[in-house]
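Checklist before submission:
- one chain only
- standard amino acids only
- sequence pasted in full

Submission:
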Amino acid sequence: MPLLSPSRHLHGVRDAGRQADRVEGVAGVETALRRNNAFANWPDSTLGRLGSKCRVVWLERGERLCREVARGTLSYVVQSGWLMLQVPSRKEDVPSAVAMLGEGMMVCSLMPDKNLFGSFDASAQRETALVEIPSAALQRQLDESPHLWADLALALLDQEEGLLATVVGQATGTVAQRVTRTLLQYTQLCSDHRDEHTDAVKVRMSQDELGTLLQLSRKTVGRELRALEGLDLIVRRYNHILVRDLVALQHYAERGTVDHGSNARAPSS
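Returned file contents:
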């Protein structure tokens, strides 16, 4: 898996022909930052100063973010795509997926000499854009406005709590429960998209990505997603999934029955 060098960034991507489509000004960076609750309530002037110090980095599918060069110096917010956290392995082993960081999620490093991802590796599950934040610039803004530390701490704690629940849900229960819980958790963690034609919540996660995360075959994941689709809980689309009824999906994940409004029913066998 190739490493992203610290000098690779917006103007150094492999496909120069697509650079025009990738250009993000400060306003675009600020929009991406505000999707994370750590920055949602920052004053425009404060966020503008931080945004002017940030840049967008692009990872191709399978490209690994080099955590060694980011020891205490860089933080990231996912602008688009998915960053997969994996347990490092020897060459002959298949790395075990632990969690995925999606749009609006953050990896924060403000501690000198601390690996950005701890003991995990991080790689792009698809073409992924990250807002790269110099940790010194972030800390400077926080120190100038100390009340903003609380927003950062609460946002990171909320994200970690959600990721922990997701990891537990991925690893326990039947295959159907694992798929449903994982889809539910990632819908709640990092999706604020609404389909333009329906009120469904759009989760930018493909069937293959869900299978990679759960260490399940495409066929197995497809079978479980078809079952959820048959219950009117989701709709599968190319490269994403529409959750038609988030409350009903949560009810099904917890109780094994479907409740669209007031009529609960057990899934057909």
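Reviewer check: Residues 165 and 185 are 8 Å apart (CA to CA).
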